[in-house]
Amino acid sequence: MGKIKLKYIDLFAGCGGLSLGLYNTGIWEGIFAIEKSPDAFLTLKYNLIEKKKHFDWPEWLPQKEHDINEILKNNHKELLAYRGKVDLVAGGPPCQGFSTAGRRNENDDRNSLVKKYNELPRRRAAGYLRTELTVYFYAKLYILFQVLGHEHTS
Predict the structure, then answer these.
(1) Quick one: pLDDT at residue 73?
(2) Which one of 95, 113, 114, 139 is the catalytic residue?
(3) Dihedral sign, Cα of residue 25, residue 28, residue 34, residue 39
(4) Which residues make beta-bridge pairs with 82?
(5) Greatest CA span in the chain, whole angstroms?
(6) What is the pLDDT of residue 82?
(7) With contact defined as beta carbons under 8 Å apart, do 28 and 8 qualify?
(8) R_g (Cα) of the chain, nearest Å
């Protein structure tokens, strides 16, 4: 009998670093990942979808780059189908506009993407998080990963 795997969704997945870490634990299986950058998604696709077969990708979602706004707008029914079936929603929204390692431009459009992570919950998840993602998934865990800054050395 095979091991039971915990299921997760990766939002703002980049090239798949967070998913790779979850894969390396041996206890997680990805459902799908959302990433807007074509180059980053191609890297994730090659390494984690094709090579490691880490995602149980849904048929309704093409294996390509996607804008989170379009997924939220056009796939309400499909996302609701995951209610109660997702153990973790992980994400690393862009932080270039407010990170101490970035330009800290308060008018950077990417600053609002951190709110999109919170839009995908609206009810309580495990009694702690109240955002729109819980409407879709009722996941047990939500991880929002941000790099606030680091020292540059030359």
Answers:
(1) 83
(2) 95
(3) positive
(4) none
(5) 53
(6) 86
(7) yes
(8) 16
CATH number of the domain at 116, please: 3.40.50.150
What is the domain range of residue 94? Answer: 6-144
| pTM, entire model | 0.72
Reading the block at residue 124, the tokens are 């309580």
Any domain includes 42:
yes
15 is catalytic: no
Report yes or no on 95 lying in a domain.
yes
Instruction: Tell me if 16 is assigned to some domain.
Output: yes
154 in any annotated domain: no
Pairwise CA distance, residues 132 & 122, whole Å: 3
Cα–Cα dist 2/26, whole Å: 12
| Structural domains of the chain, count | 1
The set of residues, in sequence order, having a beta carbon less than 8 Å from that of 140 and lying 6+ positions away, is 87, 88, 125, 126
The per-residue pLDDT string of the chain (154 residues; one tens digit each, 9 = 90 and over) reads 567 889 999 988 999 998 999 999 999 999 999 999 999 999 999 999 999 999 999 999 999 999 888 888 898 889 888 888 888 888 776 665 555 555 666 666 655 555 555 555 443 334 333 344 545 666 666 565 544 444 444 4
The token duo for 87 is 């153990």
In angstroms, rounded to a whole number, what is the distance separating the alpha carbons of residues 53 and 59?
Answer: 15
